[in-house]
Amino acid sequence: MYAPPVFHRPVPSTGRRRTGVLAAVAGLVVSLLAFVPSAPASAAPTLLSQGKTVTASSQENYGTPATSAVDGDNGTRWSSAASDPQWIEVDLGSAASVSQIALRWETAYAKSYKIEFSTNNSTWSSAYSTTTGPGGNETLNVSGTARYVRLTGTARATQYGYSLWEFQVFGTTGGGGGPQIPGGGDLGPNVLVFDPSTPNIQAKVDEIFKKQESAQFGTGRYALMFKPGTYNNLNAQIGFYTSIAGLGLKPDDTTFNGDVTVDAGWFNGNATQNFWRSAENLALNPVSGTDRWAVSQAAPFRRMHVKGGLNLAPNGYGWASGGYIADSKIDGQVGPYSQQQWYTRDSSVGSWGNGVWNMTFSGVEGAPAQSFPEPPYTTLENTPVSREKPFLYLDGNDYKVFVPAKRTNARGVSWNGTPQGESIPLSQFYVVKPGASAETINAAVQQGLHLLFTPGIYHVNQTINIDRANTVVLGLGLATIIPDNGVTAIKVGDVDGVKLAGLLVDAGPQNSQVLVQVGPDGASADHAANPTTVQDVFVRVGGAGAGKATTAMVINNDDTIVDHTWLWRADHGDGVGWETNRSDYGLQVNGDDVLATGLFVEHFNKYDVRWSGERGKTIFFQNEKAYDAPNQAAVQNGSTKGYAAYKVDDSVTTHEGWGLGSYCYFNVDPTIRQDHGFEAPVKPGVKFHDLLVVSLGGQGQYEHVINNTGSPTSGTSTVPSNVVSFP
To answer: Which residues are identified as catalytic?
Structure first.
């Protein structure tokens, strides 16, 4: 960033306010007079934009977000990058008759700009344009119906970006202008918020752990949230459906002189069922020098700073089966020990201790060099595209959700220096609590609110539709959505920038064709500049009870990023059987340019992953074929023995994957053979790197790794068959 003159671009304070605005304040008095309608009307124009969802093409720095242009505060501002064009857009929540626009420019104004209206955020009409903008306070009389109002600057009057104190939209709505569903509010009883002065923190954390330690299919859901500060002598043990997180903007804002621990005492030292929990946004000074995070699937370790080592195995080094780290810094060594596979993205590690079958890294400073299969390291210097998961934090006493910016060719953590992204006040979220209906949730989205699901279980009798661009849907404490009548639980429209994060979707007893659908059938819009992200969204069919779904997740939208998901047809728990929890397909990808980073898909009756879109990429894949196949005939795919774990359609011309593994354990009929774990067309643009298949204890076998390439598995020794490069 440049170092500007102090008067024009002072460094924002913590409150992101500026001094030296006497001229603008004086102008405010004049501009307010202009807001009085010049002629009688059946309903007086009202200010519609204040506090509403707002997005922008860019922002100059953390202290100048788009939200500052609609907060009603003439001391805060939005400013853009110093290039043309740039835009800012407000979502009014519902269609309104717009009659006036008020612009309060800072010194850096637009000489040339246009204002456009839209009712659907895709088709736009011109409402006003000029090439001789005067800056200062402008009041524009306009006319039209709009839900979305966008200002696009095409020529700057200064060397700096565009800068607005306020962007105000006036008009009338059929319902009188006021929102029917309030934003904000408390976070409910299952979000426990601590500060360093809270008494008996250890006892309260232990109480939650006692409830959740072995509650693998229980109904409890909890989020443990820690305000910025230092916490001494704390060991937070994390059980099922429990999330622990700091409430600072950076991990180092919330420091434990202590540990955040996952172990496997509840399961006799076996960590292969340590699912559904998370740790985020904390700094740890482990008591012993090494923190223990012995987990398997659906247990993300995000935005963490471990000032020491990290042990990924249980006490005694028993079994552990997979996990995920992102946007984290581990100063010391990461010790996988018994971990069979692991994916680490956009992070920094002091060193990496060992590997069993599949250790995959992208954008990780300090990662071991590429060496698959011995040691089994797959290492990419960068991650092609990433955007970190949104998170709740405290700005002073105000809760906000920070939405990190998209990064391309990322490497290392996103939080060195000033975090890049957008802060959205909690007042712009519908804080969803158990008992809320899908009808109310959908009405909140249509009104223009984002969604924050508090910990709990949500039964829905209609689909939750996220069809507004840039909507954030964030779950706390593994908030769980269950469709009761065979509907799709969540659908995303063919719109830009939706963020789905932190949710568990459980199949209901009546078959759903799809549980999570990103984009309608035939979606075709280009979302490369602002993709949808699906992060820590887990899908489960059976286990917690009877459940059925034809397909767990379908991605129709182009440019979607699926960043850490576990799609699981249950192999244990309640409601489990070859037909009892029938689910033929795990992930179906129809969109083009879809990227999966950290893809875990297991036990589906047919294809676990089927990829039909062009230019898809997967970095790390972990799979187990369905344990409970009753016989060879049950999995026969025409003349092919078994359905591939990961199939790329014959029509696809370009596809690439790194660090992919499939395992079989046909314990019902150990004589079952799989022709291959992976299936793909042999074309120059279809490439795979570092593939493996494993027979677990000789319970079934693979004939090949991919197509007819790769040696068969054999015996009971659980030794992988590898293919380093295909074709």
So the answer is: 624
